[in-house]
Design goal:
Layout: H1 4-25, H2 28-93, H3 96-107, E1 115-119, E2 130-134
Antiparallel strand pairs: 1-2
């Protein structure tokens, strides 16, 4: 191995010396043309590198925007379904019969001559109390 190392050094030394001789042998015009060529190649490589970074950034931004679009579409879908439900609720609340039924069920309001019976909680169902209405006008039917 020791013999191979000096050969490598001599090979690179010879290459370097050959390049230096070649550079010296070139005329000013040839060196100027070579320098211009290297500048143009460097500029082209810079542009290619710049464009590739731009495309990568564009791809990342596009991916982010697609994620935002899908989340906005999901939100729009949920809001439209909520809107439909609210419109149905508005129609129901504009109906006097529904409002009266709702008032009787939630707030134990009754019509004239109507009696309300509240039964204890049933162990099988999840309701807190069952409600029953009767249109009887006789107070003797109520439990006291």
């Amino acid at each position: 191995m020791k013999k191979e190392e000096p050969k490598k050094e001599s090979f690179w030394k010879k290459k370097k010396e050959a390049w230096i001789k070649e550079r010296k042998a070139m005329t000013k015009k040839e060196r100027k043309e070579q320098n211009i060529f290297l500048i143009i190649v460097s500029f082209c490589l810079f542009l290619i590198l710049l464009c590739s970074f731009g495309f990568v950034q564009y791809g990342l931004q596009l991916h982010h925007l697609k994620e935002v679009q899908s989340s906005v579409e999901k939100e729009a879908t949920s809001l439209s379904s909520e809107r439909r439900q609210l419109q149905i609720k508005i129609k129901e609340l504009n109906d006097p019969e529904y409002v009266a039924k709702l008032a009787r069920a939630r707030y134990f309001l009754s019509k004239d001559g109507e009696q309300i019976y509240v039964f204890p909680k049933d162990s099988d169902s999840g309701d807190t109390a069952e409600e029953s209405t009767s249109s009887s006008a006789e107070p003797a039917q109520t439990k006291e």
